[in-house]
């Protein structure tokens, strides 16, 4: 795809491959969303899309990617990678930015199929997009956030060296809920061994990173 080379971009780790999904990947991702992402009593997302019935969750997971591809500009983009573990689609890891050329800041978000929880995949897939952001795109900072009862996400942020960056208040399922913000500085990041980026150079202009300082 000469006009949208991000489809050839890959980030690999010792156990994972992150890539923009094919249509077959999206089918697998939709099935995974229908199976379940978290316990029903929990809600880790600001927009509670997983409260929908399984068929609606599957359709939402499928359609989300088309919306992001269609809306992508160098000034504002969301790059939702599918995460492949042991040949299986395991979830989504996204990295996003607005005016990256100026701000040099990215934000991340993710979800993982429930049957893939507890294997350290969440840490490894977040590390993969941080490698892309810092070492590939030349980001200066990366942000993340999670509800205060989303202990798995909070643990990943702390494990990877993020610093506390404050608290936001939201309404979740009709009740008050807090999210904790985190910020990771480029100088606090060290890429783990065995991580690699493939096919990045043709994509840099789409990320607004063609003039960014990169390592």
Automatic annotation (TrEMBL):
Keywords: Transferase. It comes from Planobispora longispora. GO terms for molecular function: protein N-terminal-serine acetyltransferase activity; protein-N-terminal-alanine acetyltransferase activity. It holds the Pfam family Acetyltransf_3. This is Putative succinyl-CoA transferase. Residues 16-186 form the N-acetyltransferase domain. Transmembrane segments: none annotated. One of its GO terms (cellular component) is cytoplasm.
